[in-house]
Amino acid sequence: MTNRSGPDACPGAVRVHQAADGLLARVRLPGGALSPAGFAALAAAARDLGDGRLDLTSRGNVQLRGLADGVALAARLRDAGLLPSVAHERVRNILASVLSGRDGRGFLDVRPLVAQFDAGLCADPALADLPGRFLFAFDDGRGDVTALRPDLGVLALDAATFALVLAGRDSGVRVAPADAVRVLLDVARTFLAVRGTAWRMAELENPAERLGLSGGTPIAVPHGEFPAPGITAQKDGRTAVTALVPLGRLEPAHLAALTGHEIIATPRRTVVVPDTTAATAAALTAAGLVLDPGSPWHGVTACAGQPGCAKSLTDVRTDARTTARADADGVLVVSGGLPVHWSGCERQCGRPAGRHVAVVATPAGYDVRHPTEDPVIDYVRDGAEIYRRSFATIRAEADLDGLPADVARVAVRMIHACGMVDLVDDLDVAPGAVEAARAALLDGRPVLCDAAMVAAGITRRRLPARNEVICTLGDPRVPDLAARLGTTRSAAALDLWGDRLDSAVVAIGNAPTALFRLLELVAAGAPRPAAVLGIPVGFIGAAESKDALAASDLPHLVVRGRRGGSAMTAAAVNAIAAEDES
């Protein structure tokens, strides 16, 4: 099970995100649907309060950028009926089959269920605590939204039966349409009770079992397609027009052409105008939207890029249109039929799931990355390239602002060892500690480790003076010494360090008792180390031992709380020992 620590940073319409071009707000649209009045209100808000554009998201929601503050936007959304509950505004992530009830393809019309579910969700204060990434879905049987692996949803098997879907898979549980809303709300409440630190249903081991659900034999769920750009005949004789939005951004001309219509925003960054006539298609095309399913714009996406994102190396959206290898529509021809995603940095925000061509900005220019023919073995094989991309990704995703350069370098390598970019939040480094540790190594002082795993993780070639790496835990005297002292072997082993403690670099990455013992020895007059990397892991004593070290006058680096371990500690030593990131 994947556990996530730290707050859920998903933006909303009220809890906005500070971007480089102003505030960013994300407005949830249950089922992707917007009435003519609702769309007009959003378009006016973008024009009056933001940068004049609306961005479509991969969940059928919309974003406004360039806002000065979120208060005026929230007021407009509330007046337009688009903010029924401030407390629930980030959890109304509800997908629905796009043309349900209109094109005659699904088993039943799920639109009424979406409205009922949204009302029930907003009526329960407890459900406001759902993670902002948690995704619901109502699939009328065609498999379009179930293919996106929602956390919790229903998939019609016939007009009278839904399959309950967990993390995109059939749970085996069957639900009548009349009970669907109640069951989904109940399961969502149960998820909150059992989730621990998990954000998504897939992060639970055996979700159905954890949720107390039992049913029949699960079936393979269908994976259907969303409407392709173009015109679809509705069963009532009217027309639904699907338009691809280049790079997922509705420009002012697009907004003007769509005003007055109901629209459905899709996770494919298209918009559907239902219940209309074929004449609408011509108006949308004239405004610059794409109705040709064979257009090279199909499958081309991009992150925000500059100027919207401070981490982006370039304006990827402009580059996607103007690069030298462009066709007549201004799209880079690199894909061979695969989706193409442009990214301004190694984070590759907004990239599509599945095989795609990645066009990634680097300091040296764009790196065009094609998947291999066999997706099973699609991986980077070059070790140096793995390091380069890894460290670039960490520097893009972790908040290193405000850290001294030497501390940031250590943090990057520690994150590389554990995969947790929020580690920075718990990092506590005494002023000058990294510099003191580096000086001690340059002076030939040893590295004293509490565990063999810490010692084994230290890369000897990085040590600047062929420094000795010492772990006394395996010394045959340790068991008797631990018995006499009434402590753990890890703690007792430190008593054998003796004078080698003098100006050494101490790396404790396993046992909290070892860190407590170090503090006791120093307090009793033992030689003082040059610096202590105190990063033990555990539930008993780990946080307390690190707090005690941070409160002492020893130069220290700690990771506050329970997190830690041998890999992080060895990584810290390796970063201090040599400045190159390889």
Label the CATH architecture of the largest domain.
3-Layer(aba) Sandwich
Q: What kind of sheet is the major sheet?
A: 6 strands, mixed
The overall average pLDDT, rounded, is 91
Oligomerization state: single chain
* Beta-strand residue fraction: 15-25%
Uncertain runs with pLDDT below 50, 5 residues or more? Answer: 1-6, 328-332
Terminal CA distance: 30 Å
What strand line-up does the widest sheet have?
A: 20-25-24-23-21-22
Radius of gyration from the alpha-carbon trace, in angstroms: 28 Å
Q: Supply the helix-strand structural class.
A: alpha/beta
Q: Helix amount, in percent?
A: 25-40%
- Give the name of the CATH superfamily of the largest domain: Cobalamin biosynthesis CobH/CbiC, precorrin-8X methylmutase
Kindly provide the name of the CATH class of the largest domain.
Answer: Alpha Beta
CATH topology of the largest domain: Rossmann fold
Please tally the β strands and state the result.
Answer: 25
Number of helices: 17
Shape: elongated
Number of domains: 4
Keywords: Cobalamin biosynthesis, Iron, Iron-sulfur, Isomerase, Metal-binding
Domain Cobalamin biosynthesis precorrin-8X methylmutase CobH/CbiC: 385-577
Family: Belongs to the CobH/CbiC family.
GO biological process, one term: cobalamin biosynthetic process
